[in-house]
Amino acid sequence: MYGKRARIGRISPSPETAGAEEWRRSLPPDVCLVETRTLIHDVTAEGLAEMIKQVERAARELASAEVKVILQAGTAAAFFRGMGHDADLIRRITAATGIQATTSMTAVVDALRALGIRRPAIATPYIREMDEKLSGVLRQSGFEIAAIEGLGIRRSIDMGALEPEAAYRLAREVVADAKTPDGILISCGNLRTFEIIEPLETECGLPVVTSNQAGLWRALRLAGIDDRIAHLGRLLESY
Questions:
Q1: At 42, which CATH number?
Q2: At what angle do helices 85-97 and 104-114 cross, to 10 degrees?
Q3: Cβ 209 vs Cβ 235: under 8 Å
Q4: Strand order in the sheet with 120-124
Q5: How far is CA 35 from CA 2, 167, 194, in A?
Q6: For residue 202, what are the domain limits?
């Protein structure tokens, strides 16, 4: 039986090619991923609003596999309506299934706090509107923004087409432009980041949080899996 220790549920945006694959390659022994998807094309307020209408349907599908926890992936899905929207999504998932839940955005905030990061330098693939919404939610959550830079990409499928080196270069540029950052955040679950977390921490001397890394960490801990995972940064090696 796959998932003897835990089955982790993930609601992924439909064009995503990075997040679930990164998770599958990194899960501890006897932990398996159960995934479903919600339709979206553009990472805009309009596209995200249509996507989250599908949350209850997707959550009930995962519940049929008796998962221990459900994560709503797609970081922007949980911040585009402002502060508290992630908590609303969590309530909706749990109300529909009776299963504990989290979101990528919630996990990012938890990870930043666990690592003691207060002034992140932030790299994203988003358009400016999404960068502004992310910055606003983080500020309301008690963080300062050392710098933020996005690639201006609208379509989720185009975000997934980027190689890890694109996120690496962007993160380095943001750190170079930032004023006294104490950590790095790479937001978006459809960016490949797992290969670059450790090298980026080594080069910049700062802890790194990415959407997929934080989501994996939080989902595992909620499921009662306390394994440490090497090569995915301080977060999964130490917390």
A1: 3.40.50.12500
A2: 120
A3: yes
A4: 147-150, 120-124, 183-186, 208-210
A5: 14, 25, 19
A6: 107-210
What mean pLDDT is predicted for residues 186-200?
97
> 140-151 pLDDT, tens per residue?
999 999 999 999
Q: What is the rounded CA–CA span in Å between residue 220 and residue 45?
A: 29
- Mark whether 89 and 112 lie in a shared domain: no
Provide the pLDDT for residue 1. Answer: 78
Q: Is 180 exposed, middle or buried (0-12, 13-18, 19+ CB in 10 A)?
A: exposed
- Tell me the pLDDT of the chain averaged across its residues: 97
Nearest of 72, 77, 165 to residue 123 by alpha carbon: 165
Whether the pTM exceeds 0.70: the reply is yes
Q: What is residue 13's three-state secondary structure?
A: strand
Q: Count Cβ atoms below 10 Å from residue 4 Cβ, excluding itself.
A: 10
Q: Which of 160, 161, 111, 165 is nearest to 138 (CA)?
A: 111
CATH code, domain carrying 112: 3.40.50.1860
Kindly report the number of other CB atoms within 10 A of residue 80's CB atom: 25
* Helix, strand or coil, per DSSP, at residue 199: helix
Domain annotation covers residue 239? no
Structural domain includes residue 71: yes
pLDDT digits over 127-177, tens only? 999 999 999 999 999 999 999 999 999 999 999 999 999 999 999 999 999
Contact between 156 and 13 (Cβ < 8 Å): yes
User: Strand pairing partners for 13?
Assistant: 38
